[in-house]
Amino acid sequence: MALRTYGRNFWRQTAERAAKTSAQAVAATFVGDGFNVLDVDDWRLPVGAAITGFVLSVVTSIATAPAGEPDDPSAIHRTNP
Q1: pLDDT in tens for each of the 81 residues of the chain?
Q2: pTM for the full model?
Q3: d(Cα 74, Cα 52) in Å, to the nearest integer?
Q4: Alpha helices by DSSP H, 1-81
Q5: What's the Cα-to-Cα distance from 59 to each of 15, 19, 36, 53, 76, rounded to whole Å?
Q6: Hey, is 7 helix, strand or coil?
Q7: What angle do CA 49, 57, 50 make, to 5 degrees?
Q8: Measuring CA to CA, how many Å separate 27 from each of 6, 30, 57?
Q9: Which string of DSSP letters, residue by residue, matches 46-67?
Q10: What distance separates the 2 farthest-apart alpha carbons in the chain?
């Protein structure tokens, strides 16, 4: 099995996915705990959720990349219509 290389496009798409996942994780902590953003005294929970979401998203992109198109973090093969 050949070593897979990841190009600039792969890392750009992976970063975008990870940023979105981080934002969703932060939003989930606010909604899940009924937080008011202005009243948060302890930011460790939302920041920890954001970091965890970011890392898991990157790991998922790397793990599923071999299943998809070259230089693309998606596991789905795209077909041209």
Answers
A1: 455 668 899 999 999 999 999 999 988 887 765 656 666 667 788 889 899 999 999 999 999 888 888 888 888 877 765
A2: 0.77
A3: 20
A4: 8-33, 44-64
A5: 11, 13, 31, 10, 16
A6: coil
A7: 20
A8: 30, 5, 16
A9: HHHHHHHHHHHHHHHHHHHGGG
A10: 53
